[in-house]
Amino acid sequence: MATARKADKPYHHGDLRAALIAAAEAELIGKGIDAFSLRGAARRAGVSHAAPAHHFKDAMALLDALAAAGFARLTATMKEEQAAAGADRKAQLVAAGVGYVRFALDNPELLQLMFGTSRRKSDDPELGRNADAAFSVLVNGVGMIRGRDAFTGEAGWRDVAACWSMVHGYAQLAIAGKMEFVTGLEFTRQRDLIEDLVRRALPEKAPL
Amino acid sequence: MATARKADKPYHHGDLRAALIAAAEAELIGKGIDAFSLRGAARRAGVSHAAPAHHFKDAMALLDALAAAGFARLTATMKEEQAAAGADRKAQLVAAGVGYVRFALDNPELLQLMFGTSRRKSDDPELGRNADAAFSVLVNGVGMIRGRDAFTGEAGWRDVAACWSMVHGYAQLAIAGKMEFVTGLEFTRQRDLIEDLVRRALPEKAPL
DNA sequence: CCGTAATCTTGACGCTGTAAAAATTGTCGC
DNA sequence: GCGACAATTTTTACAGCGTCAAGATTACGG
Fold first, then answer.
1. Is B180 left (phi over 0), alpha (psi -120 to 50) or beta?
2. Average per-residue pLDDT in chain B?
3. What residues make up the domain containing A35?
4. Would you say residue B2 lies in a domain?
5. What are phi and psi of A160, to 5 degrees?
């Protein structure tokens, strides 16, 4: 009874697997992606340095799992923003983009992890699934605008590439501190800027 | 006379500083950004593991220098592409974007280093200078299109943000392997796609 | 209630980056 | 020419890292 049992999964710790993922995020945010250490995450979770080995093959597997959780939250943030937006189809796609950037700026280290090749090997099946789910939010947004046979030709796919590139590029550059020349402008509100950017990428003459 | 003197700077090695930067790039390309090691770079340069300390304060300083060289080459690639393009002002900006992406895809690890926060501390003055030089290629491109008072309001800066975000985002996503859904399309030529993307970002109604 | 399997800890290995001390080599004044 | 000095490089050492192997601990099924 020393350790109050919160779930029924665990054997010793409670739920070490989940605790390690949470600890890994704290470690990632606290020390940055290069100073991240598996031993540090174990320390934060209150277990010995070799304990993670039983739940994750190696350090990269733990970070893959964290990245997977990140993609799930990215998807949630985009849908959340869409729910708060108007029903207009373009507004829906713009809202997804705004959510994308908001998530990125709120979780810079996580985004670096999710999209960098660094520190991961990316063969986690859940990671692939969650990344696909996030992707399909964008695809659906373009599909709504373009209608029926949106993706028969390559025009629809180009729209997706344009929208994704725009929001992702802005997010990355803002995280890297390279966007101060525009975010620092006096009367620029971040959200207006992002909406402007997304609108440039999406198909103006789409339903032509 | 055992070591043929190529310049007048060096004392012992010849030009260890430059050799270390070259070795660091080989190490970066060969082992990836997370497996990069200072000792490995020293090994490639044929010196002891502590030799770099006299030329670079620490490992991050060496990678900062490499990133600075990367920005110089990025600028060169953009200008090269501009020289090969038509004189039309929009074509010039598009060419800069194409050069940006070409450099990125030819040097993926280097781009990750240049724009990631990972493994660097970024207080190298030459790094800042070279990054600014690359930035100004884009700014000049927008300035040419918008003319005289391009950057009095914020519209011009938004154009810069849009163009940069677009090319940077596409480059990052392509490097991460996330753009196969469009690069894999049968008759899509990469260059056409990139030109299309850049054209979406730039100010259509600019000289209005 | 005990055996077995899952979980966690301990200890060890080679690797890393960095600092300090020792050794080597070029340069400058004489 | 050569000795003193300064710059460069190597050697040595240390703490931290990821991972593996072995031992200890705990839960579960018969």
1. alpha
2. 90
3. 10-56
4. no
5. -60, -45
Q: Do B168 and A164 touch (CB under 8 A)?
A: no
Please list, in sequence order, all residues whose beta carbon lies within 8 angstroms of the beta carbon of residue B142, skipping any fewer than 6 positions away.
B93, B150, B156, B159, B160, B163, B202, B203
Residue B173 and residue B104 share a domain: yes
Contact B101, B74 (CB under 8 A): no
One domain, residues A29 and A75: no
Q: Confidence class of residue B110 from pLDDT cuts 50, 70 and 90?
A: very high
pLDDT at position A69 is 98
How many angstroms is C1' of C7 away from CA of A10? 9
- CB of A33 within 8 Å of a chain B CB? The answer is yes
pLDDT at B188: 60
Residues A65 and A22 in one domain: no
Q: What are the residues whose beta carbons fall under 8 Å from the beta carbon of A11, sequence distance 6 or more?
A: none
Q: Give the three-class secondary structure for A153.
A: coil
Which among A33, A165, A172 is the nearest to B115, CB-wise?
A: A172
What pLDDT score was predicted for residue A183? 87
The answer to whether residues B98 and B128 belong to one domain is: yes
Whether CB of A59 is under 7 Å from strand D: the answer is: yes
- Count of domains observed in chain A: 2
Neighbours of B58 (CB within 10 A): 12
- Looking at this protein, which amino acid is placed at residue B35? A
Do A50 and A118 reside in the same domain of the chain? no
Note whether A30 and A114 are same-domain residues.
no
Instruction: Express as a percent the part of chain B with pLDDT over 90.
Output: 78
